[in-house]
Amino acid sequence: MSTQAKQDVYTHGHHDSVLRSHRWRTAENSAAYLLPHLQPGVKVLDVGCGPGTITIDFARRVAPAQIIGLDRSAAVIDAAREAAAEAGVENAEFTVGDVYELPYADGTFDVAHAHQVLQHLTDPVAALREMKRVTKPGGIVAVRDADYAAMTWYPESPGLDEWLALYHEVTQANGAEADAGRRLQSWVREAGFDPAGIEPGAGVWCYATPEDRTWWSELWADRAVASNFAAQAIEYGLADDVGLEHLAEAWREWGRAEDGWFTILHGEVLARV
User: Where is 128: in which H helix or E strand?
Assistant: First the structure.
């Protein structure tokens, strides 16, 4: 593992409250901007694949081509392998690896994809250069990241305002960029992609139905007190247990609001190699 990867700290960690969110993700709700470019025979690298739900969806689209899902966490790679086996998907391979030192030759893949990865890195431009290296000329590097400062909700909640401020403080302490979405095009250009081959865009997640509000609010109430985010907030002296419980209750209160509404804006970029 590279020195750079050792310096990176994953703000969320792999608590169940985090993985519940990751397992919800599909190619349709998290990578629709890339799907028109995935056909049978396209070879894909899915960087930061987590528990593999998006990877498995991709695998079905590109079969019989092999897709590789790569993540730093051996535990989630094991979970991804189990999920692929349960789904009967045989053309998905999962491996532990480092985005700064991808273990593949130049020009190996038609597509290199990363969803919600660059926001957690201390050097996202270096990661993009490495993804570019392993992608064939004419291939695509596809990245999508949330932008925390652009998240918005109703009704107003001083507690959620405090949560968002604390999240920015924790990620800043980690050397990461919570507002990555708006920066993706800039990072891709800095990584050396031809501006003429860059397609920037945006996508949203919205949680507004009773079921979605309950799921999202309970998930973040748990994260506020039990995930790596909570542990880091305490370790860095940015919050204490009482303050984190206050944030958890703010999430539950928002979740109980019958007119509650929460949206997450994502930056999206397709970059031709």
Answer: helix 124-133
